[in-house]
């Protein structure tokens, strides 16, 4: 039953939307169209996500979703549970810390409480007309009543004092009175209070400026005007005065006086401005320098010595809080002078000239200072003169354990060429002709006896062996990381004949250079005609259609043709122009192009489709020939997720229907 609104929901994320009035006993939020607040198409919101209910004078938030509802950024209300809502409570239907644009949140406000707040604000406001014609000589206007904690409802009359520090002190006392009632909202209320006084002081300046009176409370003679833009930036939102001994909170980077935040820190570990959890406190030297320069230009805005001594006495932020010993696992001492070298140990005279240890993982770095100093670690690859193979036996107990773990993880199993096949600097002792015979030469030669079909099938999953070029890295050699095994290699992309970069996606890989060490890698880069795709790709090679791919697989089994032999046929058709692939239009692409495995597989799918389309109908089973063509042909999306449709209709055809 609808009636007078007893509450409202104000959006926290869509500031342009109007508040939603609560006139009924139940309001539903969800994705379904029958919800009172509906978010159609938003998959992060359940059909009927949550409800706001009023029962016997109490307001409840009841959740009926899969992901739950977050209340006040602390309590998660799960499906089937409910929590009581109070005036000013916030709840989020969708809350993503890493993507705040997707958030959907509301704040609940009780109408009776809103009216009380408005009435309190009305009693504290003063009439501007009373002061517009007033000057500093009007004692009735400029007399300031004393703030008392005994009578908090008594209206406070704010005036334009001659002292530059009095307005902020009076605002500070008013904020301390309100903070006893609600300490969590003290910072926001003080900010609103300053804006209100500033607006009134601006009006008074316009009215009294032509009469020769003091334009504001910053000085009778007009030496210093009201709060300017720079001062607004340098004001602490807690005490509403220019900051002293400024500290910044991370990760939100809001700044406050060290003494003011010490008081706040006793009752909350959240930022006073944004309520974000504080991970670390740090000195903000830039802001402190700005404040020092600003006060030199405006000496009348300096804080009194008593205030500074009081702030220093209240400052409880210790050195350990500002400079933690461990920062992300790296020991840090602010008094230690860091030099631009590769090692940071005490005996620098002996260690600076020592060669760096090999890098066995992805690159890491750390930063310092305000914006962070990038200190990258030096890479050591297989062709560096000081490279030490971690797989080398005879390294003691730790080396034995290390090799055992690598073997258990499959890192040492059949990935490296024997002996010096690429792990040591210089060329490998492998015979390149054997590699060509195994990986790139056709297996259907009539001069040699054809091996057994099962033996030829094994070569479809065999990683080709690679001869490492004879090369030694220079002292300042630039290195790049293989995107497959994440190991460094010398950057020789500009050298003719070196295959390190895919011509399509421009990513770098190492297999064609010296052989990739990753266990699952079949050859992460190489010439398109030599790429080993693996028989595993036959499962969904044709249009990602399992049934059509199975037809091709059975055809190859029947004709005793391996995947590599089918690849060779497709490459020949590609060079002749009979077959087309997806990347031919945007690059000079041929069977001789250097491509990575993902790009090669993407283009080989098009060639495999053309190969499947060339198969004669009489070579296919009877149940395959009897199928009707799908209206959507090869562009059909249903074939990928509905096996029944893929089995009953032929998709090796063009699209004949557009709507």
Describe the structure.
It contains 21 helices and 22 strands. The chain is of the alpha+beta class and 659 residues long. Strands 2-1-11-10-7-8 form a 6-stranded antiparallel beta sheet. Strands 4-3-5-6-9 form a 5-stranded mixed beta sheet, with no helix packed on it. It has a 3-stranded antiparallel beta sheet with strand order 13-12-14. A hairpin with a 2-residue loop joins strand 5 (50-55) and strand 6. The two termini are 46 Å apart.
Briefly characterize the structure.
By secondary structure, the chain is an alpha+beta fold. Helices cover 30% and strands 12% of the residues.
Question: Could you name the key traits of this structure?
Answer:
alpha+beta; Herpes Virus-1; 5-stranded mixed β-sheet; 12% strand
User: How much helical structure, as a percent, in the residues?
Assistant: 25-40%
Strand content: 5-15%
Low-pLDDT residue intervals, each spanning 5 or more residues: 125-181, 207-226, 328-375, 412-447
Query: What is the fold-level CATH name, i.e. the topology of the domain at 342-425 and 465-520?
Result: Herpes Virus-1
Rg to the nearest angstrom?
37 Å
Structural class: alpha+beta
Provide the residue-averaged pLDDT: 74
**What is the CATH C level class of the domain at 342-425 and 465-520, in words?**
Alpha Beta
Second rung of CATH, namely the architecture of the domain at 342-425 and 465-520: 2-Layer Sandwich
| Shape type | flat
N-to-C terminal Cα separation, in Å? 46 Å
> How is the main sheet built?
6 strands, antiparallel
Beta strands, count: 22
